[in-house]
Amino acid sequence: MNDLGGTPRLTGESDFKPDFKPDSKATSRPDAASIAKPDGKPSGKVWLVGAGPGDPDLLTVKAARILRQAEVWLVDDLVGPDIRALAAPGARIVNVGKRGGCRSTPQDFILRLMARHARQGRMVARVKGGDPFIFGRGGEEMHWLAARGLAAEAVGGITAGLAVGAALGLPLTHRGVSRGVALVTAHTMDDSRPDWRALAASGLTLVCYMGMRDAGTLARELREAGFAADMPVAVAQRVSCPEQRHIVTRLDRMAADIADAGMASPAVIVIGQAVALIESVPRHASLTLAA
Q1: Is the Cβ–Cβ distance between 27 and 71 less than 8 Å?
Q2: In terms of CB atoms within 10 Å, which of 103, 174, 197, 241 comes out highest?
Q3: Which stretches are tagged as biased composition: Basic and acidic residues (predicted)?
Q4: Buried/exposed 67-85: b ≥16 CB within 10 Å, e otherwise
Q5: Is the pTM of the predicted complex or chain greater than 0.90?
Q6: Residue 105: which pLDDT band, with cuts at 50, 70 and 90?
Q7: Domain with 262 in it: what CATH number?
Q8: Of all helices (H) and strands (E), which one includes residue 95?
Q9: Which amino acids are annotated catalytic?
Q10: Of 279, 52, 264, which Cα lies nearest the Cα of 162?
C-alpha cells in the first residue's frame, strides 16, 4: 500500500486502525527481526536512514539493505522514485515531506507515527535526504524515541554539502587554499545566524544550506562580516540528480546570477577560494554526470 498523495492526518491514538500486513520475507533477516518484550509482544525498531543527495548509487550498502527490509517508510520529499523503488512488496510508504517555504508535515505527527508503528512491532524506516544528523532533525528524533524506550538506530548518508565536491569537481579542501570545510545553514526558526565574522576569518570553505530563499541578504551579511566581494561562489541545485545544474560566480554577483539562472531549492551554496579551482567549467552550464 502506497500513501503517496497529500499530507497525512493523524487524529489520535484510538483512531488508528492498522491496515498493513508486514511482508514475512522482509522481517526474516537479522536487522529486521523484532525483539520480544517481557509480555511476549514484539517490539519494533525505527531506523533513521540517510538516503543521500539523490543519486541512488550514492546510497550506502547498509542503507539499501535496511530500506529493502523495512515494513513502513516515512519519506521526505527529496527522496526520489529510484530510491523508493527499493521498497519491498507490501511495504507501506507514507510521504512526510518537510520543505522550507512549503506546506510541511508537522513534526509531532512524524514522531507519533514512528512510535505507533514501532510499538506494533514493525520495522520503520524514517527516510531522509542526505544524512539524518546534518540538518535532518535526526538528533531530535533519536532523543525523542529513546526517551520513550523505543529502539532506534541511525544509518549515515552522504549529505549534499559533501557530495557537491565530487559532483562539480570542486575540492572542498585543498592544500594551500583551504584547510577545512564548514557546513552551515542560512535559515533557522528563530532567525539566528552563524558567526559569519568568525567563519570569514577562518579561511574555511563554506557550504551553505537553505540560503536560496534570500540570497541577497545572505550575500550582504557575508560581505559585512568580512568576505571579499570577489570571493568565488558555486551554486549547485539538485546535487547528483539527473537534473543537476550549477553556476560559478562571485559573492557580489551571487544573488543576481541565481535569479538570472532561475535556480531554486534544493541547492547548496559553496563559498571560498577553493571554488576558483573549477573556473575552467563553463559558467551557467549544466553538468552531465557519467552513466
Answers
A1: yes
A2: 241
A3: 12-28
A4: bbbbbbbbbbebbbeebbe
A5: no
A6: confident
A7: 3.30.950.10
A8: strand 92-95
A9: 76, 98, 210
A10: 52
Do 182 and 149 share a structural domain? no
Grid coordinates of 48: 533513521
Phi-psi region of 75 (alpha: psi -120 to 50; beta: other; left: phi over 0): beta
**Angle ∠(237,273,284) on CA atoms, nearest 5:** 35
- Cβ pair 98, 76 in contact under 8 A: yes
Give per-residue pLDDT as tens, 141-186.
Answer: 999 999 999 999 999 999 999 999 999 999 999 999 999 999 999 8
Give me the half-sphere count of Cα atoms (radius 13 Å) on the Cβ side of residue 232.
Answer: 19
Which range of residues forms the domain containing residue 184? 161-277
Report the distance separating Cα 59 and Cα 182, nearest Å: 23
pLDDT of residue 65 exceeding 50, the answer is: yes
Q: Kindly report the CATH number assigned to the domain that includes residue 99.
A: 3.40.1010.10
The verdict on residue 208 lying in a domain is yes
